[in-house]
Design brief:
With 310 residues, this protein is an alpha/beta fold. It contains eight helices and nine strands. The chain has one domain: Alpha-Beta Complex (Spore Coat Polysaccharide Biosynthesis Protein SpsA, Chain A). Belongs to the glycosyltransferase 34 family.
């Protein structure tokens, strides 16, 4: 004969301890992220990275991005197994994720994936990735890129979840196979540059200021600008992240550590609210001019005066 199990009753003191632990966790979350918001809306942007090996500095850098994702509700896709040779995994992984998203019902899909190299540090977790994306009426823009003194830099860029993107990434991956004699100095980056020269791809790619989401380091300690470098390419307080392309392996830990220290301290002088940065106005103005130059009508936003109440 089976016995009916009685519900487990916790002693009052245990209930109090559990309640206090839960309250402490919530207080800790809001103390760390005073602007955190909770909603049930599905995310429209995901973050994509890859990392191999056990370098603790790389791991710490990725954690700054994970922190950002947890705070603002972005899914983080992290490749930790090498499938192709080296950096070519970036394009293959992005392509596979886009295919997976396109398999979903349209309302459940991510709309954009933000590729971010793991030699970057998230500096302002208040900054929303959507800030830099084209508005909805610019639906033919499928990839947003930046340039430095070497040309296009593919360390950080958003790409739309769209069949166009699969074609772009597939063409870049196939390039050294179809053209074995081609010189690709920056490997997958050079392949993307070559493919983007084709009109079909070029017409859907837009280049924006590098500082928006791909800023480079400033002084060695991160506390001041480097007078020997272009100011507009250097990270400023309030910017999304700092990227360290081309940093020598023997100086990698030394170079990133001061910036990791700033990011991990969550300093208020760096973690500005989005509205206190230049980006809401600057990005809106950029996309408005982009549409105007191409004869694309922007939606008219009517101002509705709110009634005043005493």
């Amino acid at each position: 004969m089976s016995r009916t199990r009685r519900p487990i009753r916790l002693k009052p003191v245990v209930q109090v301890v559990i309640a206090l632990l839960g309250l402490f966790s919530l207080l800790n979350l809001f103390a760390k992220y005073p602007h955190v918001q909770s909603n049930n809306a599905l995310p429209t942007v995901g973050k994509v990275m890859m990392i191999y090996g056990d370098n603790p500095v790389y791991r710490r850098a990725v954690e700054t991005h994970r922190d950002h994702c947890d705070r603002l509700g972005y899914p983080l896709f992290l490749l930790q197994t090498e499938i192709l040779d080296g950096v070519w995994n970036k394009l293959a992984y992005l392509s596979s994720l886009i295919v997976q998203e396109l398999e979903k019902p349209e309302k459940e899909r991510l709309e954009w994936l933000f590729w971010i190299d793991s030699d970057s540090i998230l500096m302002n977790p208040n900054m929303r990735l959507e800030t830099f994306l084209p508005p909805a009426h610019l639906s033919d823009v499928h990839i947003v890129l930046t340039k430095d003194w070497n040309g296009m830099n593919a360390g950080v860029f958003p790409i739309r979840v769209h069949p166009w993107s699969i074609k772009l990434l597939s063409a870049a991956i196939a390039l050294p196979i179809l053209k074995p004699g081609i010189k690709l100095f920056w490997e997958e980056q050079s392949a993307l540059v070559s493919v983007l020269e084709k009109e079909y791809f070029a017409q859907s790619a837009v280049y924006v200021p590098l500082r928006w989401f791909n800023a480079y380091m400033r002084s060695a300690d991160g506390e001041s600008l480097n007078p020997d470098s272009v100011e507009d390419l250097q990270v400023h307080p309030g910017d999304l992240l700092v990227h360290f392309p081309g940093t020598p392996r023997d100086r990698f830990n030394e170079t990133l550590s001061p910036y990791l220290a700033i990011a991990e301290q969550h300093r208020s002088d760096w973690e500005l609210p989005v509205e206190e940065t230049v980006y809401p106005a600057e990005t809106a103005d950029f996309w408005r001019k982009y549409a105007l130059e191409r004869g694309i009508e922007s939606p008219i936003i009517e101002y509705i005066e709110e009634p005043l109440y005493e």
